[in-house]
Design goal:
Radius of gyration: 18 Å
Strand order of the largest sheet: 3-2-6-9-10-5-4
Shape: globular
Protein name: Flavin reductase family protein
EC number: 1.5.1.-
Helix content: 10-25%
Structural class: mainly beta
Number of domains: 1
Enzyme class: oxidoreductase
Low-confidence stretches: none
CATH superfamily: Electron Transport, Fmn-binding Protein, Chain A
Distance between the termini: 34 Å
Number of helices: 4
Strand content: 35-45%
Number of strands: 14
CATH class: Mainly Beta
Keywords: Oxidoreductase
Bound molecules: flavin mononucleotide
CATH topology: Pnp Oxidase, Chain A
CATH architecture: Roll
Amino acid sequence: MSSYFYEPCNGHGLPHNPFNAIVGPRPIGWISSISKNGVRNLAPYSFFNAFNYLPPIVGFSSIGAKDTLHNVQETGEFVWNLATKPLAEAMNATCAAVGPEVDEFELAGLNAAPSRLITTPRVAESPVSFECKLTQLLQLQDRCGTSVSTWLVLGEVIGVHIATELLKEGNYDTAAAQPILRGGGQADYFVIESRQLFEIFRPR
Ligand SMILES: Cc1cc2nc3c(=O)[nH]c(=O)nc-3n(C[C@H](O)[C@H](O)[C@H](O)COP(=O)(O)O)c2cc1C
């Protein structure tokens, strides 16, 4: 098998950096936060994932110090909201590079629903939200130990909201929510549908 090889520190030599097309599709951390002055903020982060089961811990990377990072530093909390196919355009609207004074719920025409355990609101239209408390904030380093301008924000999920229609006989139906995931390139997304489901049981 012939293969293309590159060292990222010397560039990829391709029309688009393939890294996030390869590590993909990625779940989207659609993160709501508030500033210390109470301005609501909402933005998508696809360098996002779950990192622990119990207690549940999720994390996202802020590539550059962005409003969400500042807000989480100030308040110690954030909400993760599920981005779905019907909410794709609204999610995309919330990535606009606007100042910290802009309420991105209003910008995207979304409603805010109160959280139960924290001050940060949820996206009312999203069928699943996690109320999170900041646990660790790590500035990333390269292999030489030099700081990179990227911060990994980790938070414990202390409250979970699930639209009851997504619970089928008590089991969460992943595909029913039509979650969207980020691919590579400038605009690639994927959607999860039930026909993509297959099962493999672990060896005993
Ligand atoms: C689908 C999607 C995924 C994104 N993922 C990230 C990410 O993982 N990290 C990041 O720093 N920016 C990411 N961005 C860009 C941010 O959403 C954008 O910079 C936004 O303005 C940040 O908002 P804030 O300053 O209100 O936090 C992404 C944008 C989109 C549309």
